[in-house]
Write a structure and sequence with these properties.
Length: 60
């Protein structure tokens, strides 16, 4: 399963372990913490855990 980070747009790939999951995953590109819910191998919801996330920064 793949999802795009809501903070930086990086494609985050998830193993089959996350097919039925509710919890946090980390974007390794920007460090944002995403709160996700999946069921039957499909993404049901995703949002940034704002209290823990660092905003994405663009290079000048």
């Amino acid at each position: 399963m793949k999802l795009n980070c809501l903070s930086c747009g990086h494609k985050v790939e998830l193993d089959d372990v996350y097919d039925d999951y509710a919890g946090q995953v980390k974007c390794f590109a920007c460090g944002a913490i995403l709160e996700i819910k999946t069921a039957d191998g499909k993404l049901k919801s995703v949002e940034v855990a704002w209290g823990l996330a660092r905003p994405a920064q663009k290079e000048p």
